[in-house]
Write the structure tokens for this entry.
Amino acid sequence: MTPKMHDKLGAELHKALVDGTVLSPLSVRHPDMTIDDAYAVQQRLMERRLAAGEKVIGKKIGVTSQAVMDMLGVFQPDFGWLTDAMVYNEGESIPMQRLIQPKAEGEIAFVLKKTLKGPGVTVADVLAATEGVMACFEIVDSRIADWKIKIQDTVADNASCGVFVLGDRLVDARDVDLTTCGMVLEKNGEIVVTGAGAAALGHPANAVAWLANTLGAHGTALEAGEVVLSGSLAAMVPVEAGDNLRVAIGGIGGCSVRFV
């Protein structure tokens, strides 16, 4: 694909985001699109968001579970960018008009106190650089009609990121077994999915290390002060106006959100 096409598709995705509309799958219209092409489109999309005044405050890791890898036919995670326009705090309401076809994921968020830059970043490096971890929701959303996505579609669409919600408790990552910690996600008072830290590449810090090393190969770091969402611990949960969700992660805490 040409740089001109990357720019065209980035503009299409940005317009869909602003207008609250959907596009037909990019991977169908452009079957020659590679993952590298998709990241180039993602870059063009984010350039437009930043030009409109948003600021990068972190990164997210997606496609960390085997089930999602199998669904998309890929065997590596992907990543996207978090901005200040995407973040909500514990208990805040999210207006549905901000979203298109949202689904909620329970995750562990890492808050960094030191910069991480690959290559060679290990789990121990991640834990040493982490101020703390907290329960969070990522509200994934897709600008691709009916979620009919391949890996190229979700990468181009900023890893299908919508907004995210951080819990109100930050705990030392070394005080928690991040592999075995259990997650329970409730929707309107009923348990709908459960999971554990191991769902994120075997250990959430593995996912953060993967991202630090992947970005490092391109000269980009995970910066001190940034938030990193380490990947879903269970299946995505569709949401609509009126829904109340809460996630609890053993040893870390909880996070709640409602949709209006």
Remarks:
- Residues 3-259 form a domain with the Fumarylacetoacetate hydrolase; domain 2 fold (CATH 3.90.850.10).
- The first strand starts at residue 56 and ends at 62.
